[in-house]
Amino acid sequence: MATGNKNRRQSSVTDKALSALGILLCIILVPILIINCTLLIKGYTSDEVPSFGGRFPMIVLSDSMYPEFSYGDLIICRTAEPEDVEVGDVISFFDPQGSGSSIISHRVLEITEEDGSLSFITKGDYNNAEDSVSVPEENLVGIYIGVHFAGVGNVAMFMQTVPGLIVCVVIPILLLVGYDVIRRWLYERKHRGEKEELLAELAELRRLKAQKEEEPDLILLDEEELLSPDGEGARSKGYDG
Question: Is-above-0.90 flag for pTM?
Fold first, then answer.
């Protein structure tokens, strides 16, 4: 019985440790998996910048906006309409001089309107001059919301490589699957052990019950011997007569 209680306490400690580990893995890995998978799917199936609830991350690839943010930082922007942009905002936009895939984040110095369409004159805070070409409203991607994470952009760029996919997608999936397999195996072993302990305890109770049922016969026999005048001799005398 004492051994059974000790095993149960050990199993309880193990269960709590595994549960805490599973929760920690879920907190860390599930968001990474969701973000990575969403970015990958949207990146291959859409020309738009993937967003989550109207928010999207951007990786900074130059120091043109230093000290607001620097190379390797991860900035958070929100989707917006051209009418929402104000002078002083930092906007992300497709480079009007590029191929249509590169995105720049610079501060708006002036907003102009021509034939009902808005254009933005922009400049990097660290640059000496404003950008040579104004940004048409259709190139607008979003507005920087003032949140950035120093150096996280380097991690995000690593996640887009094959080794990064292995580290940030494949390994987390394997860890979650491995945790689930181990948890199920320990659960089954624990309950199998508890079942064996219960069966052993039941067998012991049956043995004790059977032993108690035999005790009245032994007590009755002892009483008969005590009541006999001379024990074995009296029975022998009665037989000879």
Answer: no
